[in-house]
Design a protein that fits this description.
Blueprint lengths: L9 E7 L4 H16 L2 E7 L4 H5 L5 H21 L14 H12 L3 H13 L8 H10 L4 H9 L2 H14 L7 E4 L2 E4 L4 H10 L5
Helix pairs in contact: 4-5, 4-6, 4-8, 6-7
Length: 205
């Protein structure tokens, strides 16, 4: 992806997962980039491989220590922003929630949908594996849950596979990851570096 002209908007890819607390924490600052800079965000779901992202977890004690610390950090940041993060009791699959996000995106309501999914999942109020629960969120923002069911049973898997294939081409290994003019930035705490990159490209509004 090449940089755009001074008067056009640069596309920033934002790879995310609803079950990633740091994706949740990155969401609002990422959206704010569209107001501060001449950019547009493209949200791309990515299924995180826990072992690839956080290293060898064969040692259960080391696993617990690392995960516990990551959630301490996430909750610390969330509290400073008035957000709630309750560590989940198990590892959830994002597939149904991703399908819902893709469906919402096709209908121009991705951000409305994602705001509710992130908030409710991290308050332990939403089971992202429950397709009926996902359908209820979609209905709440004005979409048809029956249409969603048809989408989930037809083209949703191919659409999600295309996202994963794009992630492989971009060499994504964890979320949140930003791709700015072909340069990757991994982590919620890399947004300041994204801003520096955009400023150096002359994209400040």
């Amino acid at each position: 992806m090449n940089s755009k002209s001074i008067n056009s908007e640069l596309e920033i890819k934002f790879y995310f997962a609803y079950t990633s607390p740091f994706s949740y924490l990155a969401m609002a600052p990422a959206c704010a980039l569209e107001h501060s800079h001449r950019v547009r965000l493209r949200f791309i779901p990515y299924g995180v491989n826990i072992r690839k992202t956080y290293g060898n977890l064969d040692n259960p004690d080391a696993d617990r220590r690392k995960v516990r610390y990551l959630y301490i950090d996430a909750r610390r940041i969330a509290a400073s922003r008035g957000l709630t993060i309750y560590p989940p009791k198990k590892i959830f699959s994002c597939r149904s929630a991703f399908y819902g996000g893709l469906f919402a995106e096709h209908n121009g309501l991705f951000r409305d949908y994602s705001k509710l999914v992130f908030e409710r999942f991290w308050k332990a109020q939403l089971d992202v594996e429950d397709r009926d629960a996902i359908g209820a969120v979609l209905s709440e923002i004005g979409l048809n849950s029956t249409d969603f069911d048809r989408y989930a049973e037809s083209s949703a898997r191919a659409d999600l596979d295309a996202c994963f294939a794009e992630a492989d081409r971009d060499k994504i290994f964890g979320v949140p990851t930003f791709i700015v003019d072909s340069e990757p930035f991994w982590g919620e705490d890399r947004i300041e570096w994204v801003i520096r990159k955009l400023d150096s490209m002359g994209l400040r509004r």
